[in-house]
Specification:
Strand order of the largest sheet: 2-1-3-4-5
Distance between the termini: 42 Å
Largest sheet: 5 strands, mixed
Number of helices: 3
Helix content: 10-25%
Structural class: alpha+beta
Strand content: 15-25%
Length: 149
């Protein structure tokens, strides 16, 4: 979708607390080599969508998927800002020619959720976001009152 854009486009895939998609939104458009991304606007949209997590993405019109230092710094800045409102950044995908690049798979940024610990791949994570939620099975002896937090 973003691959054939003539300028950089930055967007978010919003996810619920079970990592099911809530929607995708292109938030910022820039020039052929950059786009200004404002954390305040990303936070506002995440709250409006009631997102528990999100996957950041943007394209490189040049076709080269390699992230710049600015891309990495922006991702870390957004992780920190969104973490303050308890919205997890699961990955930042860069779309160029060929396969999209996952910053988490490349080890450029750490995923801040247990799903990414232990080497869960981008494709497995994206695949999980489209699976229906499973209802938890009651534990044996669950007749006892449950503590509420």
């Amino acid at each position: 979708m973003l691959r054939h854009e003539e300028s950089e486009v930055f967007g978010c895939l919003y996810l619920d607390n079970k990592h099911r998609p809530l929607g995708f939104e292109a938030l910022f458009r820039g020039s052929i080599s950059s786009a200004n991304v404002y954390p305040r606007e990303v936070i506002k949209r995440a709250l409006a969508r009631n997102a528990a997590a999100l996957i950041l993405c943007h394209n490189h019109p040049s076709g080269v998927s390699e992230p710049s230092q600015a891309d990495i710094n922006l991702t870390l800045r957004l992780q920190k800002a969104l973490g303050l409102i308890e919205v997890r950044v699961l990955d930042h995908i860069i779309i160029g020619d060929g396969e999209p690049l996952s910053m988490v798979e490349r080890g450029l940024v750490r995923c801040l959720t247990l799903l990414c610990v232990g080497g869960t791949s981008r494709s497995a994570l994206l695949q999980q976001t489209t699976q229906p939620a499973r209802q938890p099975k009651p534990a044996a002896g669950s007749d006892a009152p449950q503590a509420r937090f």
